[in-house]
Amino acid sequence: MNTMQAIQAAVAKERGDRYSASKLQGESLLKARENWARTKVLSGQAKADAEFMARTEIALRTKILEAGILSADYLRVNWTKEIKATNAEITAYLSAHPEYDVKAKRAKAEMILRRAQTGEDFNRLAKEFSEDRSTKEKGGLHENIGKNTLWAEVERAALGLEKNQIAPRLVETETGWHIVKLENKQLDQNGETVNYSVRHILLQKNFEEPGSNNPDVPAPFLKAEEIAKSEVEKEKRVAFVERIAQINEISLPEDFTIESPAQSAPGNNGK
To answer: Is-above-0.85 flag for pTM?
Structure first.
């Protein structure tokens, strides 16, 4: 496992990516050791079975695995020269994609603040625009929370308001820009806040990663530069692979056929 992590760290460093793998320990280490041992046992049994190893599909699968390893290493060797995004390419990508303009995000937050201040329903605005996934569907509500729970800047702004009052300006945090509305606050006998409820609409300084097709797993929010780097390298990688494929043309004989296991299994009637 240490060797594997060292290789991953070296590849990440060569690509210019941030990589920090935590050292396996406890139950995670035990599970990894058991999985590795099981794989080694099964591998040894397979190699000892001459009839099994002589099967055409096993030889083909082995070649496919070998090809995958070699192609991954070929990409690694050529990454810096052929695929790694340059600063100029990242800048050009962002210039061509104004949807990743942070200044435009802030301007949008200002527009939403004005709409809230003119009496539009805060709950509805939060559901439409907020990028805080934990409260978006609740109209931006953080209910009955104690002090020192939210962003310090948001809490300070909220506790300086009266019930149902909206902060007059955007509240900026490390995450983004917040439109803050105090719902209520509970005070103790000394006039100190015990807990409070607040609604907020958040426009993040980051952007959703494009290309996510899993509705059950929301796309992460990334910096504009991170998205640009990823998209540029994705395009360059595809072009590099296509260029290599053209140089090393692969063809199959016209009479090449293969049956799937479902077609060749007895009693399946070809279905």
So the answer is: no
